[in-house]
Amino acid sequence: MSFHTIIEPFRIKAVEPIHMTTAAERDALLRAAGHNVFLLRAEDVIVDLLTDSGTGAMSAEQWAGIMRGDESYAGARSYYRFADTVRDIFGFAHVLPVHQGRAAERILFSTVCNPGDVVPNNTHFDTTRANIEHVGAQAVDLPIAAALEATVAHPFKGDMDVAALRSLIAEVGRDRIPLVMLTVTNNSGGGQPVSMANVRAVRGVCKEHGLPLYIDACRFAENCWFIREREPGYEDKAVIDIARELFSHADGATMSAKKDGLVNIGGFLATNDDALARQEARLLILTEGFPTYGGLAGRDLEAIAIGLREVLDHDYLRYRITSTAYLGKHLAAIGYPIVQPPGGHAIYIDARTYLPHIPPSSFPGQALVCELYRAGGIRTVEIGTLMFGRTDAHSGAQTVAPMELVRMAIPRRVYTQSHIDYVVEVMASMHESRARVRGLRLAWESPPLRHFTARLEPV
Ligand SMILES: Cc1ncc(COP(=O)(O)O)c(C=O)c1O
Fold first, then answer.
1. Which residues have CB under 6 Å of ligand 1?
2. How many angstroms separate the CA atoms of 349 and 331, rounded?
């Protein structure tokens, strides 16, 4: 007999108290922080949905692994446990540990990219794009059309537009493309999955042109769970086997273990190319560390090795994906326009539709972020004009972003259903008064990545 309630498949062994605040206190804290939730102290947040990166809870087994960590400078036992696990799941010949995802990106792109090169991706995450642009190359996003329609439901909105990939190769020439990348799941596109059929199709195009295919693997387990749930032929497969098949189509991967590695810090760069691995190891030694620790402690490698197995557990993944969808379903029922269907790690609210009285130049996404904090101490992040727009130096006008989203990212194994029910209740209470939410204007900004430090005030 199966039951309707999907419980958290864990018991809680250590707890971290939450400091409760009143709406009046939060209003004062928000003003002091210049209406920028990045400038709040974390202890003044009740439910922190700012990011799912590095914010997860480790298991008792991982904490035990922390004690077992081998801190030898070279050839540590923990490195071999880590590298063997990565090889077993991902199948790549060479595995370089790094301190987080962007370090893998920096080493990869500064090794394979030349100025003027072009790197296609379904959608680049911002650090991926920044590392490509840093070496003078161009990052091109090729999402399918449905990815840009917030309310259109599609099972694999993370897919790459294969026809657009062919056109891009024809236009710029294969010699200017060092590799093709697929981000699973597509974070910047709403945490949406990529289908195995799409991976195969992209692989086919890469093969025709002799191009390597890389996977940004941050949320690979969540992506593989969606394949199992939604793609015909995978319903009876183990997620680890789906992952093995997915990576068998690729030549390498970058990974931030802060997501589906279930750890607070760490990542890796993997490749099947012997010569490239040697070049990458040289850079790794220069800035991260010796290739058997790569800027991490032995204990971190041990925790990643355990986390990569735990994340593939079906009970965990069922709970993870269902609990994200649970938040999405309740917010949609209240009337919040969310990106459909819910993604793996986060719910995205279309703030432009939700607050139509606030023009994009007055940051409707950030206005909603502030309201969520004021109403219930809930911290989220704007992905819109504050993050991607620019202020014209002469006129002061804003270049606005294509979408004004608020992302509610759910840390792994941290919050229970009652925390999520609290979030839903807070947002239900705000709903009727949404027409009274006021826009914001910038009081101070410092580009690039202005959203981290900007200060704003109500219009
Ligand atoms: C899809 C994707 N790629 C790369 C990164 C970068 O990883 P890190 O923050 O560990 O540098 C992130 C982080 O959020 C991400 O979501």
1. 53, 100-102, 125, 127-128, 183, 187, 216, 218, 256, 258, 267
2. 9
Amino acid at 214: Y
Answer yes or no: are the C-beta atoms of 281 and 95 closer than 8 Å.
no
448 Cα–ligand 1 center, Å: 18
Q: Whose CA is nearest to atom 6 of ligand 1?
A: 101
Distance separating the N- and C-terminal Cα atoms of the chain: 56
Enumerate the β-bridge partners of residue 182: 215
Say if residues 408 and 380 touch (Cβ distance below 8 Å). yes
**Alpha helices, H only, 40-190:** 60-68, 77-90, 101-112, 126-134, 162-172
Q: What is the pLDDT of residue 151?
A: 85
* 127 Cα–ligand 1 center, Å: 7
Contact 458, 38 (CB under 8 A): no
**Is the Cβ–Cβ distance between 105 and 183 less than 8 Å?**
no
Predicted pLDDT at 270: 98
117, 173 contact by CB (below 8 A): no
Return the pLDDT at 189.
Answer: 78
Measure the CA–CA gap between 48 and 415, rounded to whole angstroms: 9
Separation CA 84–CA 97 (nearest Å): 12
Q: What pTM was computed for the model?
A: 0.96
Give average pLDDT by consecutive 10-residue segment, the chain, 459 residues: 87 96 98 98 98 98 98 98 98 98 98 98 92 96 92 94 98 98 91 97 98 98 98 98 98 98 98 98 96 97 98 98 97 97 96 97 98 98 93 93 94 98 98 97 91 96
Whole-number Å distance, alpha carbon 309 to ligand 1 midpoint, is: 20
386 and 365 Cβ atoms separated by less than 8 Å: yes
Contact 294, 288 (CB under 8 A): yes
Cα–Cα distance, 38 to 45 (Å, whole number): 11
